Amino acid sequence: MLKFDFAVQTRYGQKIDSILIAGRDQADAERKLMQMYRLCTVMRCVTKNSDEKLWQATSIEDILTLIARDS
Questions:
Q1: 65 versus 31: which is more confidently predicted?
Q2: Residue 45 neighbours by CB under 8 Å, 6+ apart
Q3: Which of 11, 29, 31, 69 could form a disulfide with 23 if both were Cys (CB 3.0 to 4.6 A apart)?
């Protein structure tokens, strides 16, 4: 599933720089966005690679470091 990073302006004029929404495509992600922020204006939409984080913690040392931080 793709992730989309939206920058929007709400109907009351507040600007939100980053809202990350997963979707099958951009239209699906925009539909979900409009359910949360009705009548907002999309200022920017950037597709994020969802596979980036899957390869970050590949070594045992990285995994142990992550576990030690949570303790």
A1: 31
A2: 4, 5, 6, 7, 26, 29, 30
A3: 29
